[in-house]
Description:
This protein is α/β, with parallel strands linked by helices. It has a domain at 2-12 and 70-111 and 128-200: Rossmann fold. It is built from 9 helices and 7 strands. The protein has a 7-stranded mixed β-sheet, with helices on both faces. Helix 3 packs parallel to helix 5 (94-103).
Amino acid sequence: MYITCLDMEGVLVPEIWIAFAEATGIPELKKTTRDxxxxxxxxxxxxxxxxxxxxxxxxxxxxxxxxxxMPGAKEFLDELRSIGQxxxxxxxxxxxxxxxxxxxGYPTLFCNELEVAENGEITGFRMRIEKSKLSTVKAxxxxxxxxxxxxxxxxxxxxxxxxxxxxxFKSTEQIKKDYPQLPAFEEYDELLSAIKAEIRK
Length: 201
């Protein structure tokens, strides 16, 4: 029995922080897990910039409301869900992801929580579990599932490498160069075909 585990940002929807950086004109916020492997370091860097500019949850949610899934993402996800179980494993936060999940047809999402003050300031964040993507894949395997995983960033590599089959999707040239053993795809139909082939094995 298989479960497919997918990253969210960069795979199914555009990067939220890049969209917010462009909307606010703050280029420092364009840094993502494609650039910084240490997620705690990256999030604390982001929160410091938000404080400097007096920006909070509402401003980010206003931008998220304008974001649509990548072209073809919902159709890809619908097809994948019609042939097997799918879980989206993301380091994003429930306060960010909810409107995007609606646009994707409410797939199952495992992510994290922001700590938000009454005035809307984001004061911190709570990760669901350490190394959440890898820990989740291992937990699924411990109850009898084989996992297939796909993502685009450094924080996806653990779950991809630990799975029975793993694929890079819309990743960076550097990551593809560093992990030549991982098949890398740019189009949903390519990824879908690869996943279907694994399920049929």
